[in-house]
Write a structure and sequence with these properties.
Elements: E1 6-10, H1 14-27, E2 30-34, H2 37-46, E3 51-55, H3 63-73, E4 78-83, H4 88-97, E5 101-104, H5 109-139, H6 150-162, E6 169-172, H7 179-188, E7 197-201, H8 207-215, H9 232-235, E8 240-244, H10 251-263, E9 265-266, E10 275-276, E11 280-285, H11 289-294, H12 300-306, E12 309-312, H13 323-337, E13 344-345, H14 347-355, H15 361-375, E14 380-381, H16 388-391, H17 411-429, H18 434-441, H19 445-455
Parallel strand pairs: 1-2, 1-3, 3-4, 4-5, 6-11, 6-12, 7-8, 8-11, 13-14
Antiparallel strand pairs: 9-10
InterPro entries: AAA+_ATPase, AAA_lid_NorR, CheY-like_superfamily, Homeodomain-like_sf, HTH_Fis, P-loop_NTPase, Sig_transdc_resp-reg_receiver, Sigma_54_int
Keywords: ATP-binding, Nucleotide-binding, Phosphoprotein, Transcription, Transcription regulation
Modified residues (4-aspartylphosphate): 55
């Protein structure tokens, strides 16, 4: 059942209030009435409304006072004012305070219906935008970036320290480590969170188009410039610009970017009009900019402008402890997106993923889990369901119990060989950490250390 939009009607003229309430109810709205501004404010405390239609002149609290109250306590509610004493001054004051419309008595009900429809649509868009922004803030909260490893804790610590500042940030890390996710998290946890966040991949746009994409152009600036175009910097003014793959920016454009960062203003291509900028710049690269500077491929002065606060994102192979949590997070996320029942990942599959080096980092993991879920008919992802380069990364277990022949067998030596192989496997799975290996073997760490010494195992 579709819920009716709820309107609060405020008018001290009883007959007028009843008539308008009847008309609005007949149109399909749910209507509450109030004979005074004071009573209206009490109703607003007790229940939500989508729109207020109020007489301007009320005993005590006026229609203008109601608008002021809604701006402070429930800004998403629109107000339409009605009055029998129209004047240019009161109309201007009402609109300045934020009234959606100002209608004089006797009014045309058809016109009022149009205004009510527009006001409710505006209210719906405001609430939808507020909800989407809350979703973004929740999605890009620091807690939603997965990682309990020491390397990621250091990243989170630095993100927390810089989010509230306007400092320029350079995010360094291999492809697929989540550089844009970090940039968005910093933006949506900063004072600029209600302003635009725009990302531009400097390596994906042809060099001759990149300047226009960033700074815009005027009509006739070049052959295909048939109209004026706003650049990303102007669109994002007040917010954050994220320049990904900054190392691929052409050198002539590096000069312009440096000037923009120094002077906080720019000119669109083909124009002499200067636009002032109030923007935060976050850039990212998966290449060594210092080497590019030394090779003369990247401007040294721009590098120092960009590298005010560096954030280094570790590759996934250096944060193996995060792999089980990441894998389960992606599995849950993808199942929700595909509207599938929750799928589990068994221990062997997790172990295989822990051993694998992940050259494509977190992005590769997400893609592989999505592919595996799409292709499996089971509610459990097993090791054999994973691509062969991952499933075959587990070390092979020793084959069975040694055979005893008529010549007999050195049992102590055979047991030592089996123990050695098992310890090597555990150390491999535990990334060389003895505590992890001991946990896998279900023995104390001190016992494991003694066995490693006794068996002469190199670690």
């Amino acid at each position: 059942m579709i819920q009716k939009s709820k309107i609060l009607l405020v008018d001290d003229e009883v007959e007028s209030c009843q008539a308008l309430s009847h008309l609005l109810t007949q149109t399909g709205y749910s209507v509450e009435t109030s004979a005074s501004g004071e009573e209206a404010l009490e109703l607003l405390k007790k229940q939500p409304f989508d729109l207020i239609i109020s007489d301007l002149c009320l005993p005590g609290i006026s229609g203008i006072d109601i608008i002021k109250h809604t701006k402070d306590d429930c800004s998403e509610i629109g107000v339409i004012l009605i009055t029998g004493k129209a004047s240019a001054e009161t109309a201007v004051e009402a609109m300045k305070e934020g009234a959606l419309d100002y209608i004089t008595k006797p009014f045309n009900f058809e016109r009022l219906k149009v205004q009510v429809t527009k006001a409710l649509e505006k209210n719906r868009l405001v609430l939808e935008n507020k909800y989407l922004r809350q979703q973004l803030l929740g999605r890009y909260h620091f807690d939603n970036i997965i990682g309990t490893s020491q390397a990621m804790q250091q990243v989170f610590s630095r993100m927390g320290k810089v989010a509230g500042t306007d400092s320029t940030i350079l995010i360094l890390g291999a492809s697929g480590t989540g550089k844009e996710l970090v940039a968005k998290a910093i933006h949506y946890n900063s004072p600029r969170k209600n302003k635009p966040f725009l990302a531009i991949n400097c390596g994906a746009i042809p060099a001759d188009l990149l300047e226009s994409e960033l700074f815009g152009h005027v009509k006739g600036a070049f052959t295909s410039a048939f109209t004026d175009k706003l650049g990303k910097f102007e669109v994002a003014n007040g917010g954050t610009i994220f320049l990904d793959e900054i190392g691929n920016m052409p050198q002539q454009l590096q000069v312009k970017l440096l000037r923009v960062l120094q002077e906080h203003e720019f000119e669109p291509v083909g124009s002499t009009r200067k636009t002032h900028l109030n923007i935060r710049l976050i850039s990212a690269t998966n290449i060594d900019l210092e080497k590019q500077v030394k090779a003369g491929q990247f401007r040294e002065d721009l590098y120092y402008r960009l590298n005010v606060i560096p954030i280094h994102l570790p590759p996934l192979k250096d944060r193996h402890g995060d792999i089980p949590q990441l894998a389960r997070f992606f599995a849950d996320k993808i199942c929700k997106e595909m509207n599938l029942p929750q799928i589990k990942i068994d221990a062997d599959a997790i172990q295989a993923m822990e051993v694998y080096d992940w050259p494509g980092n977190v992005r590769e993991m997400e893609n592989i889990i999505e592919r595996t879920i799409a292709l499996t008919d089971s509610l459990i992802i097993r090791c054999e369901d994973l691509p062969s380069n991952i499933s075959q990364s587990l070390p092979k277990a020793p084959t069975g119990v040694p055979q005893i022949t008529t010549k007999g067998i050195n049992m102590n030596q055979a047991i030592a060989e089996i123990e050695t192989e098992m310890i090597k496997q555990a150390l491999s799975l535990g990334q060389g950490v003895k505590a992890r290996a001991a946990n896998l073997l279900k023995i104390n760490r001190t016992t494991l250390v003694e066995k490693i010494k006794r068996l002469g195992i190199e670690n």
